[in-house]
Design brief:
The complex is a heterodimer.
Chain A (H helix, E strand, L loop, with lengths): L5 H9 L9 H5 L19 H17 L6 H32 L1 H12 L6 H12 L2 H24 L10 H8 L2 H25 L7 E7 L5 E7 L1 H23 L14 H34 L1 H10 L3 E2 L9 H4 L2 H29 L19 H6 L4 H17 L1 H8 L9 H30 L6 H7 L4 H8 L12 H16 L13 H4 L18 H6 L6 H8 L7 H13 L3 H18 L2 H7 L3 H8 L3 H21 L9 H18 L24 H20 L10 H11 L4
Parallel strand pairs in A: 2-3
Antiparallel strand pairs in A: 1-2
Chain B lengths: L13 H8 L72 E2 L25 H22 L7 H24 L7 H8 L11 E6 L5 E6 L4 E5 L7 E2 L9 E4 L6 E5 L4 E5 L14 E4 L9 E4 L5 E5 L5 E6 L4 E6 L8 E4 L5 E5 L4 E6 L5 E5 L5 E6 L5 E6 L4 E6 L18 E5 L3 E5 L2 E5 L2 E7 L5 E7 L11 E8 L5 E8 L7 E6 L6 E8 L3 E8 L33
Antiparallel strand pairs in B: 1-30, 2-3, 3-4, 4-5, 6-7, 7-8, 8-9, 10-11, 11-12, 12-13, 14-15, 15-16, 16-17, 18-19, 19-20, 20-21, 22-23, 24-25, 25-26, 26-27, 28-29, 29-30
The chains are: A mainly alpha, B mainly beta.
Chain lengths: 745, 565
């Protein structure tokens, strides 16, 4: 089933469609559901697969410049990006690894102390533990653990994402789990877990220390032959470590722990770490408990397999005098349970500390200069970075910096409002505002496409009428009113865009009665931009209406894309052209194949099991739409703070020229967001987990976006007050503004 | 339950009184034109002590000359605006008598007044659990009179004893934590000491419009709007023991309510005509161990909400829309009893139940610790530009001032406070002569409010010994100036009718013609007192920003301080 694996793709793309600029990243990494942006910084011992992926990443950036540049330019751009990444993130990652390494001896000491616990003889216990700490094997274990932590950090660096990938259906989740990249992750973590467990076993001493122990096989009483036997406790330890490593990897995937959530307030790193530490320990304890329980069950059923295998391959006997562990009474050993649990806590705490440090360091603010002091800094100044297509993490950091400077730093704001020295152009403000506006326009278009898809789906038919009114109002105005030229290919004038979307949605409209929650809803619903469907094989192909009507959209545009072999990194606009030309002359065989495919899909779609796997979770699809909303929130905050500050601080009136465009964009977005929240399931809150280590803030980003959009508009209207009446906006928007001025929104 | 509250009576046009009392043009420039509104019954007389038809001239103000009072004595005030007060927004002045409000709406306990009636055990246990948590449940079972539960009672009484012993140990370490929640609420509530006997628990003006929210004794919150007759009444299952309400800035109608166990954030539709918004409009923000919530503060940028509890040592920073929270923990000092976010958004005052308060800097969230000499910090307020903090300490009748270096974003993580706090006003009890006998005013400061232009400061002064005859709780109003040098000049007093004590004070956040003080009296009356002056604080950025006309009047101090009150 080639099509099955496409669904994760879709979600990945759904999380990414943003007008196709720069975020070709997503298109390339669709087979790799984790957005991996980082360069392999400071990780020379990288697995080969990861290296390959990295090359893919490089090509991805290169693809962005495909429009006009040759391969030499691509390489140069990629090299620049990588240098930028290294410069911004390099030292942070190094510091994160160093800190997690430095904390390792502390964790080890705590482990040694707790593993040798003797509640009845506390003094003896303490003195023994301190003696143990200086033994050579503990030192060796610490060194080995440092290597493990290093590898874990490398995986953290490789797998992080600033935009979470949200699996929309169960099948997508399964696809993510059996994805080769994830398999590598899991296997590596299992091996690392085994290493940690070995260290733990060695440090625990006692009966756990060695795999092979001398034993006597007593055939007769006086004929005792000393032999080596398998120490099942040690084996149990090792296997439990591997199991925990695997569990860690699995939960890392399922809980989206690779998602870098930026903190809501800026705090010093030490305070952030201190705040999270109790949570981390608690989380590790609980998780370790569950893992041990599950492992015991697994070992009870399947424990004999590794035992037999090890004993045969290593030629070890099984001591018949010892109680076998894969029995109920064998597993009811409290001491064993405690030590295995402690080993699990040790493993999880060290790994989570590495993860936490990485997270804290990576999301720390970075100070981008607004105006370059030296010529070689030009590439690193804020307007330049915002306008190039940097790796997403850099873009996030830049937007965060923009938000902070607009809010807190009058000096840097002054630089934004300043004019260029020869010429007197407000280059800084132009670049920043253009980028923010294009981000917001992209979001608007995405949401419109989404809504049109929903309307086409028959679910929200009544909205079609409204939609007909809206297209000519906002986008066109935006495109025209912006005083500078928006020459970027991604900013499609709204009218053109909506007609494109409409034409792409034509076949979709023919599928009636499908639901958002059903697997057969239109692909455009699940993938956010209707534009994407232009690349679907149905577009333009001749099909009988009957088939069309019944045709469930089980395999969405992704499968078509695969068949077409079109590149993921192509932008919507490009793909429109390409696929359009491909689809102009569909061959007969192709059509026949299409029909057959449709029939098979139709057949499959009636089966309950398939239904179970394919059914889309509505909440997840909505989350996927807003998964990168953090960018837009910062853009909104930065823009509105700058505009509000410009009322007093803008000496040359550079903001005034852009004010109509900003207001138009914000009001249009507000309109679209309002309408979006009327779609089913959008306005219901997902359940919240407070005080847990797992960050679920990406689930509620849409509410944050709505709130910050409103606050941004109010911030501007509150500062400007009646002066806004002099700003040229359409009558509709004027009405809306008046409502904001009266605090009636 | 109180029925629909009486429709806000149209305020008597102040001009009538002006016509009766004084011809307005002859008024001195610095006078405080207080015109408390009368409720419709007319049983409320704002100041029976000082007759209305005479100007107050004789005694000096009962305030000791402020110890730190520097600068020129002549504030550059322009002449008063013509008394064109007809176009005041019609603000609802209310009386919410306590009798009409049922006490906190609890399920009836076993103690009925007339009929000895006992609920079934399980019902009582359920009730006790709801009221007092696990401990209440245990106590209820232990004290049960039913037969057949002897063994359980014996076991549980042991548990209760153990709990008590443990908690006494705990309490000896952190004394404020052992105080029961209910006892805690009284002193630490925004309103002051006797929290039990007041109809109005909390009051908040909307930061941008003429709209305010009032939390009542029965745990409902009502929203009064000057421009609409609809009075939404907010009730929620979790809305119990409301201690504070706060409107979100830069927003039309989002109200945060501090409740016993959580913070409720009401999303009200400003155009809705419904009087009972459904509880679906309320967002529940709860965090384990963070209860009871007694103080709230919104960031002026509208992004974050701070909530604090006297019991929880951490205060929480909420991102309300995503319901994410960050704990701001510090060790020592106990919980947080009072929160105030400076109007420029750069600093936060957090007072603790012990003799220390903290000033947080709101970008990197570091704090400066300020130990006080005597008691805990009772209340505080910020100047509009966030450069000066006035605060008072429990048990002292002085106002301290603490100045901060001007906030710039480049000094990350520094609060920038000055080395010491200086005393700017001594409010200890004074006797002074009036034509109607000796008056004693002064004592401890209960709460303070600074108006948004930074020109008037209202202070509730409570007599130190309430049993002493003649010492009443009054609202003292000061005229203040923050730049170039800080000035604090006494201005006048406000006093309610005989039994009415001011409980809560707040300034209208956007009153155009000066300042508008709202006072909630212990009788349940809410009255608005406008002060008309031309502010030197021109709204920033307005085109005609010219320096105010400096009138060289050295005789400012000789001007009568009371013109009408």
């Amino acid at each position: 089933m080639p099509g099955l694996a496409v669904l994760p793709t879709l979600c990945a793309r759904a999380a990414s469609c943003r007008g196709g600029r720069g975020e070709g990243a997503w298109h390339a990494s669709y087979w790799l559901p984790r957005a991996s942006i980082a360069a392999p910084i400071g990780c020379p011992g990288l697995p080969a697969v990861l290296r390959r992926k990295w090359r893919v990443g490089g090509g991805r950036w290169a693809a962005e410049t495909l429009n006009g540049a040759g391969p030499g330019m691509e390489a140069a751009a990629a090299g620049r990006q990588r240098a930028l990444l290294r410069q911004v993130l390099g030292w942070r990652l190094a510091a994160a690894v160093a800190w997690s390494g430095l904390l390792l001896p502390v964790c080890t000491a705590a482990f040694v102390l707790l593993s040798g616990i003797q509640p009845l003889r506390p003094l003896r216990w303490l003195s023994d533990s301190f003696d143990d700490l200086y033994t050579s094997h503990v030192i060796f274990c610490i060194l080995l653990m440092s290597v493990v932590v290093l590898v874990i950090s490398v995986f953290n660096v490789e797998f992080y994402a600033v935009v979470p990938s949200i699996p929309c259906s169960r099948l997508a989740l399964i696809g993510k789990i059996i994805h080769p990249q994830q398999v590598i992750h899991s296997v590596a973590h299992a091996i690392m877990g085994m290493l940690v467990a070995w260290c733990a076993a060695v440090m625990t001493k006692g009966r756990f220390q060695f795999l092979a122990v001398p034993c006597t096989i007593s055939e007769s009483l006086n004929d005792a032959v000393p032999q080596m036997c398998l120490n099942e406790y040690h084996l149990f330890f090792l296997l439990s470590g591997a199991f925990m490593g695997y569990c860690y990897s699995l939960l890392y995937l399922i809980n989206n722990m690779n998602y870098l959530a930026f903190p809501i307030i800026q705090q010093y790193k030490y305070l952030r770490f201190r705040r999270s530490l109790p949570l981390l320990v608690k989380h590790s304890c609980v998780e370790s408990l569950y893992s041990v329980r599950n492992f015991c069950v697994a070992y009870y059923f399947f424990g004999y397999i590794p035992k037999m295998w090890i004993s045969t391959t290593m030629d070890l006997r099984i001591d018949s005098k010892l109680h076998p562990l894969d029995t109920l009474s064998g597993l009811l050993d409290l001491s064993l349970f405690y030590h295995v649990w402690l080993c699990g806590v040790f493993l999880l705490v060290t790994w989570y500390i590495a993860w936490l440090f990485f997270k804290i360091y990576a999301t720390e603010t970075h100070h981008f200069p607004v105006q370059p002091t030296f010529a070689e800094e030009t590439d690193q100044c804020l307007p330049k970075i915002l306008n190039s297509n940097p790796p997403l993490i850099i873009k996030f950091l830049a937007l965060q910096d923009l938000m902070l400077l607009s809010q807190y730093s009058p000096v840097r704001r002054q630089e934004v409002f300043s004019l260029s020295q020869p010429g007197g152009h407000p280059h800084n403000w132009t670049a920043i505002s253009r980028e923010c506006l294009s981000l917001l326009t992209d979001l608007t278009q995405r949401l419109i496409a989404q809504q049109e898809a929903a309307a086409a789906n028959g679910r929200a038919k009544q909205q079609v009428g409204e939609m007909k009114v809206s297209p000519q109002t906002p986008g066109a105005v935006v495109a025209e009113d912006i005083p500078f030229q928006l020459q970027r290919s991604n900013v499609i004038p709204r009218a053109a865009m909506s007609s494109l979307a409409k034409s792409s949605l034509m076949p979709l409209k023919a599928s009636p009665g499908s639901d958002i929650g059903s697997p057969f809803s239109s692909p455009a619903l699940n993938c956010k931009a209707g534009i994407l469907d232009l690349s679907s094989p149905w577009h333009g192909s001749v099909q009988s209406p009957l088939v069309m009507r019944r045709g469930p959209k089980l395999w969405t545009s992704g499968s078509g894309l695969q068949m077409n072999g079109s590149h993921r990194e192509s932008f919507p606009v490009l793909s429109v052209a390409r696929v359009g030309s491909e689809a102009v002359q569909p061959s007969f065989i192709y059509t026949w194949l299409q029909n057959k495919q449709e029939q098979i899909k139709n057949f499959l779609s009636r089966r309950v099991l398939i239904m179970y796997f394919f059914s889309k979770h509505p909440e997840a699809s909505i989350q996927a739409v807003f998964s990168d909303a953090q960018m837009h929130i910062w853009a909104l905050e930065g823009l509105s703070h700058l505009v509000a500050a410009s009322f007093t601080e803008d000496q040359f009136g550079v903001v005034q020229t852009t004010l109509p465009a900003i207001l138009n964009t914000l009001l249009t977005l507000q309109e679209v967001v309002d309408r979006h929240f009327k779609l089913p399931h959008v306005s219901s809150k997902p359940p919240r987990s407070s005080g847990s280590l797992v960050d679920t803030s990406y689930k509620t980003l849409r509410f944050a976006l709505r709130a910050s959009l409103k606050t941004a508009l109010y911030r501007i209207t509150t500062v400007f007050g009646e002066h806004l009446n002099a700003v040229q906006v359409s009558t509709e928007h004027k009405k809306r503004l008046q409502q904001f001025l009266e605090y009636k929104e | 339950m109180l029925g629909p509250p009486p429709p806000p009576p149209p305020p008597p046009p102040p001009t009538q009184r002006w016509a009766r009392d004084h011809p307005p043009p002859s008024l001195p420039p610095q006078s405080v034109f207080g015109t408390p509104r009368r409720p419709s019954e007319g049983r409320y007389d704002p100041l029976p002590l000082f007759p209305q038809n005479r100007a107050w001239t004789a005694p000096p103000p009962p305030i000791h000359p402020p110890k730190v009072l520097c600068g020129t004595p002549s504030p550059p005030h322009s002449p008063p605006p013509p008394p064109s007060k007809q176009n005041l927004p019609p603000l609802p002045a209310l009386t919410l008598p306590e009798d009409g409000l049922k006490g906190p709406g609890r399920p009836e306990s076993g103690a009925q007044p007339f009929l000895h009636h006992r609920e079934a055990l399980w019902k009582r246990v359920l009730c006790a659990w709801r009221d007092g948590g696990l401990r209440g449940l245990l106590k209820e079972i232990v004290s049960a009179e039913e037969e057949g539960l002897q063994w359980a009672k014996t076991a549980l009484s042991c548990v209760v004893t153990a709990c008590r012993w443990l908690s006494s140990l705990h309490g000896s370490l952190l004394p404020h934590l052992s105080v029961r929640c209910k006892a805690l609420r009284g002193p630490f509530c925004a309103g002051g000491r006797n929290g039990a006997g007041r109809a109005i628990r909390a009051f908040a003006w909307h930061p941008h419009t003429s709209k305010f929210a009032v939390a009542l004794l029965d745990d409902s919150v009502r929203v009064y709007n000057s421009s609409s007759a609809t009075i939404p009444s907010l009730k929620h299952r979790l809305q119990r023991n409301v201690a504070a309400v706060a409107w979100k800035p830069l927003c039309a109608s989002i109200l945060a309510v501090a409740c016993q166990s959580c913070v409720l954030v009401w999303h009200l539709d400003p155009t809705s005509l419904s009087t009972r918004p459904s509880s679906g409009c309320a967002q529940v923000l709860s965090y384990p161990g963070h209860s009871p919530v007694t103080s709230l503060a919104w960031a002026p940028s509208g992004k974050l909400l701070l909530s604090a509890s006297p019991v929880d040592t951490a205060m929480l920073v909420w991102d309300v829309s995503t319901e994410n929270c960050v704990q701001l923990q510090w060790f020592g000092g106990g919980g947080v009893t009072f929160l105030a976010w400076s109007p420029d958004g750069s600093k936060v005052l957090a007072a603790t139940p012990s003799a220390v308060f903290k000033v947080w800097e709101a970008q990197m969230w570091t704090c400066e610790k300020w130990p006080t000499i005597k008691g805990r910090c009772q209340t505080g307020c910020w100047s509009p530009d966030g450069s000066r903090l006035l605060f008072t300490v429990l048990g002292e009748s002085v106002i301290y001032s603490l100045s901060f270096s001007e906030y710039r974003g480049d000094m990350q993580g520094q609060v920038g406070g000055s080395k010491t706090a200086s005393i700017v006003a001594d409010l200890s009890e004074t006797t002074f002569e009036t034509p109607y006998g000796e008056e004693r005013v002064g004592g401890a400061v209960q709460s303070m409010a600074w108006d948004p232009t930074g020109e008037r400061l209202a202070v509730i002064i409570r007599g130190q010994n309430p049993r002493t005859a003649g010492t009443q709780t009054v609202v003292a109003v000061f005229r203040t100036r923050n730049s170039p040098v800080f000035e604090l000049l006494p201005c006048g007093f406000l006093r309610g009718e005989q039994s009415a004590e001011p409980q809560l004070i707040a300034f209208h956040p956007c009153f155009q013609k000066g300042a508008l003080l709202t006072v909630c009296w212990s009788t349940g009356t809410i009255s608005h007192i406008p002060f008309f002056f031309l502010s030197t604080h021109v709204p920033y950025g307005s085109p005609g920003r010219s320096p105010a006309v400096v009138t060289a009047s050295s005789s400012v101090r000789e001007q009568p301080l009371f013109s009408e009150l």
